[in-house]
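ligand=adenosine-5'-diphosphate
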Amino acid sequence: MSEPTLWKVAVKAPFPQLLTYSSDLPLVRGQKVLVPLGKRSADGVVIDREETAPTEFKLKSILSVEEEIPPLTPPQLQWALWISKYYHHSPGDVFSLFYPPLAKKGRSPAKDLFTKSVEEKKITLNAEQQQAVEAIDATKGFSTHLLWGVTGSGKTEVYIELIKRKLAEQQGSIVLVPEIALTPQLISRFREQLGDEMAVLHSDLTEREKTNQWWSVVDQKKRVLIGARSALFCPVPNLGLIIIDEEHEASYKQDESLRYHARDTAIVRAQYEKIPIVLGSATPSLETWKNVGDKKFHLHRLQQRAMTLHMPEIKIIDMTDSKHDLARESFLPSWLSTELYRELQINYQNGFQSALFLNRRGIAQTVFCQDCGFIYKCPNCDISLTLHGQSHLVCHYCDYSQELAKTCPECKVGAVKPLGLGTELVQEDLQKLFPLAKVLRVDRDEIDSRARLEEFIEQMEQGEVQFLVGTQMIAKGLDFEKLTLVGIVLADISFHIPDFRATERSYQLMTQVSGRSGRHHPGKVLIQTYKPDHPSLTYALTADTAGFLNQELIDRTELQYPPFARLACIKLSGNIQSKTDSLSHDLAQNLRGYITHKNLSVRLLGPAPAPLFKLRNRFRYQILLKSDSLPVLHEVLQYVSHLQSAYRELKVQIDMDPYNLM
Ligand code: ADP
Ligand code: ZN
């Protein structure tokens, strides 16, 4: 018998290093295996040969090989290890994202996930689209492309044509879209032109469905995968192209566990696979815009809407004027200007659909006592409760709920009053103004499943609905022929968030919501605000995206925020406030010492209580690290990883390139 070979294995367990095992099985790199770990067994992936046996612990041997799963390829292995290093996360955890939740065997024949049977559709690309396709297709190897085109300019058709060309070369493609935009409408558009080549992955599938879809791709029965963020990890054989639609979307950043950014991570995958990647957006992110400016990304523009007449007419309504408007009808609710009301009326009379957008659910944001000022707060989170319906109070973070009392629970005499505005109230008010109309609300409370979403789209398409009231669920991707008027109820909500990306997000939101209007008929957008000169509105007014991005870049340079400096956030939390506080300070002190001692060019801010200080009964602190140098930042984070074990009572999480600073 030959000597057993030593192998380095990435084991699914929360530590950063690869472990060494022995085996006399004929193994190859990238194979999925089962290994012993303490008293249990764990999944692992074989990374490489190892020359020397470990001295600090007893050598164990690999238990078995998962024969049915094909080994990962060298580019996939390198990519996964890069993710592990960059996001300071256990490599075994990263690899676990590559595999389906269930075993292949025992599967029923892959059920078709598509509701419609669709006819084939033929579209001839216009000159701009054709030019983008040819330019992207002409590149060899790795390259990153920004496809910048207003909503409705036909980006999707460009993606489809590129995918078709890859199929002709027997190559597969991955298309990522934000979860919320992965509508049956969008899927059937791909299906109309790509037919049986389409597989889909999203969070609403059962584990069996996910497993079947995964295998249909890995067995090369289907070569085009469309999915939300995590579909990026599917080991598509012979991958030829990656597309990231709506590349600016913050939801591409995962906010827990492995905090990866799907766009950034996809670019690195394309680099290892030596293939092109296309980022599509109407409102590119500042990060991407800077890369275009630095000539790292190729820019392709679609300047015209593909089918429709023109972009909608946008108007800003100053609500501070509206308050003093003498002509204002007294029956109007305080959130509605006379002007928007008139437009809603006209649109209704003409038989078109209107949508009102408000990024806040419920009836009211807080309920407070008019006598003593008491505010209903969540006992688990340091957040006010939101009123739903007549008397139901809900925490939007942990789902805690309670009933509203008639008198204040604190002073026992005062009357409690709702304060603020939510989609539920807008719907109620609108229904009163248009008693015969059908007013539909689309938010997380109403649309809680994919089936409900499909039902809603059906109702809109059938013309059964005259008014739509919704949160950002209606901002993305939807396309209704008769929707010609969009009203933004209170734009200010999006720019008062304490985050350096607030202005950027607000601009994106205004543009996206506007893009829902007048896709097939001339449309109008009315934006109600108390701050009509906010840059996210003034640039949206003229649809001057380049102007906005260039101005915002200047502001970011001055404040040394990304994309100029790099950020990392160290999130610290614990169950006991005093302990969490002192340990957080201690860790920060320790880090400061390290940075000074090593003379590293990193700025350390904090520890500061997180804006949402108490969440789900945990007390939260943050340390922010800022640096011009990525390697230096990583060096500090490496040190944080090592420190972790010394702070057992503190949960320490590293968030590289953070998007959520709440
Ligand atoms: P985007 O993805 O940029 O928002 P879409 O790809 O959804 O734009 O295109 C908007 C609409 O225009 C769709 O209904 C699409 O079918 C249609 N369309 C796109 N390109 C063409 C074309 N070359 N000829 C005819 N219709 C087109
Ligand atoms: Zn709560």
